[in-house]
Specification:
This protein has about 190 residues and is mainly beta. The chain has no helices and twelve strands. It is about 0% helix and about 60% strand. The strands form two sheets. Strands 1-4-5-6-7-8-9-10-11-12 form a ten-stranded antiparallel sheet, with no helix packed on it. Strands 2-3 form a two-stranded antiparallel sheet. Strand 5 and strand 6 form a beta hairpin.
């Protein structure tokens, strides 16, 4: 117990023995494993917690973060965390898109960075999820590294769903011209049984 609240701890280990083969037949990474540990304190059960976490990708680097998550209602949520990332570490590397659209770690610059990462999200009429995130890091060379990401997803209806997302690395402010490396991605899914 801390602050009169229970501590919640977790650990994760993931191992991919042969990497991912893309639809173009390219193999991304021969193998990769990762592990992590986290601890949290639910300050208001189901609504507000503070946490700390550590994770490593055994061939790429590691990351540590401390932050807070807040759920205002069933409709709105937000989070903010301070992160320290080393090497080619990619937060959320083994995520839900790992097999379909993995990150090629060999293309990630090996540079240490630290800074703030925040998200705002909204669930609209239990049908649409809208989310934005902003990362503001300073690299070990003193350079700024800012990224804006926006996404909107539609809940599956009659087997059809979709997500659109926009990512702007090197974001310099609202109204600034989009950089050449901005990406817009859309996914449409059709469930078949």
């Amino acid at each position: 117990f801390l602050f009169g609240r229970p501590l919640v701890a977790g650990q994760t280990y993931v191992y991919d023995r042969d990497g991912v083969v893309t639809s173009a037949g390219t193999r991304l990474g021969a193998h990769q494993s990762g592990y992590g540990a986290d601890i949290g304190i639910p300050m208001i059960e189901g609504q507000w917690d503070i946490y700390g976490e550590y994770a490593t990708l055994t061939t790429a680097g590691s990351g540590v973060s401390a932050g807070t998550r807040y759920k205002l209602s069933e409709m709105f949520d937000a989070s903010i965390a301070y992160q320290i990332l080393t090497g080619r570490f990619v937060p959320g590397y083994f995520n839900s898109t790992y097999e379909d659209a993995p990150t090629d770690l060999s293309s990630v610059a090996s540079i240490d960075k630290s800074g703030w990462f925040g998200t705002l999200g909204a669930n609209l009429m239990d049908f649409v999820r809208v989310e934005g995130s902003y990362a503001s890091y300073t690299t070990s060379t003193g350079a700024a590294s800012n990224t804006l990401q926006l996404s909107a997803g539609v809940k599956e209806i009659n087997g059809i769903g979709g997500v659109a997302s926009y990512a702007q690395p090197n974001f310099s402010g609202l109204g600034a011209r989009c950089a050449n490396n901005a990406t817009l991605k859309t996914d449409v899914s059709y469930g078949m049984n």
